[in-house]
Specification:
This protein has 482 residues and is an alpha/beta fold. The protein contains 15 helices and 16 strands. Pfam families: Amidohydro_1.
Amino acid sequence: MSTSRLFRGDFVHTPSLGSVEILRDYILRTNEKGYIDHFAPASLPESQSISAIRRPTLIPTGSFMVPTFCDLHLHAPQFMYQGTGLHLELMKWLDEYAFKAEEKLDGDLTLAEKVYTRLIQRLIMNGTGAVMLFGTIRTETNLLLARLAQEECPIRAFVGKLSMDISSRPTYVEATAEKSLAAAGDFCDRCIDMIRSLPEHMQLVEPVLTPRFVPTCSPALLSGLGGLSEQKHVRIQSHMAEAHDQVQCVREERGEEDMDVFLHSNLLTSRTVQAHCTFLSPEDLRRLAATGAAVAHCPLSNAYFSAEPFRLREALDAGVRVGLGTDIAGGYSIDIMDAMRHAVTVSRMREGARIRASANKERSRTDEDYGKPLFIDWKEALYLATRGGALALGLPEGCGTFAVGAPLDAQWSTGEGVGELDFFDLGDKLWDLTLDMVEKWWCLGTTQNRVGVWVQGTNVCWQAKGERPDEKSTSNSATDEG
């Protein structure tokens, strides 16, 4: 349960795309429910009065608070074989790795608990405070995942029970569309019942309707899930226009594009997050923006399984809500900092291709307007990982920023001499946090630079590490607010 927190130090956030604010020497206080009720410069009279009554935990020079990361796309059971099997095409990879792993966890809840506990611990240690999870087809396995995320290592988790009535693996499939729909509805009801008795601010877990993707779902199942989402007002997640072989499969079997199938099934709404979307044209992205659906951009797994990069700049310009995803295990890194870096790298490569095509007066699929740059920078990537992801997930008001009324979802990052962060030109001067220093953290920071992680005002690092705050030395100032 949260208790009131009080911090003094530097804070960094991205309230809008491309804008990074460094708020130096601020006082931040939360109430007992974990919501920020004071955030202002320490020099102001009200801040001084607050500090006079209670000693704040000091964020030392060289350290700062930044909002927690949002991971919009992760396959929880696939964490078991993270970093393997990436030599295959998508559809073959699903047969040889994904379905097997998911079926194995559905048949062994002890193993599932071990895998899922470690997964959530790893997420917290990497600064992720909110995550949208694909699960398996068995209800009990997904309820286990939801319980662990709510109780054992508290994290904002959107848990999806897979719906799939078509499969290349006969032992891993739901018998009919009707039974699949009934199971999806039952999971949603039981997941909601699990947290219903908790105070609203402590309800961190939500169910998500999760058609795996078009090739594994009959038209009846897809349209039924669309109706179920509208009836229960439950969120939706899936994969859309992901890979060349998958897109061709849908065209051959359904006679239309992925996006049209989802549209006809009422599965593209403001409650929807679609992963990948690499084969959407600029016009498709404008259509997608009109539906209100969001995109989970997974640059690392796209490099392995899609023949095209995602049109990120075009999506942002079209008004599509976009966040980042790790796509474990199609992507091998669970660290959203890697996803940010890969997003920038891919965008720079797209921009290089655009420049070359323009110079050679060639027509390129990368853009309709050769005069418009396609790259994003680190500031925009940090926005996608924090505020942008929070908006895409529909998190509580203010999430992804530091503002009065927002929950304290934050990570404490430390700098000089920790991990790979070295600064050689400070001399004896008092540390003054600059954009260059934040950029260096963005490029080189690791888990070594993370002192604490707070979700709804509670420091969840202790749960992630299997420790209690009083088991740590009080020489680490983060323990004062543990």
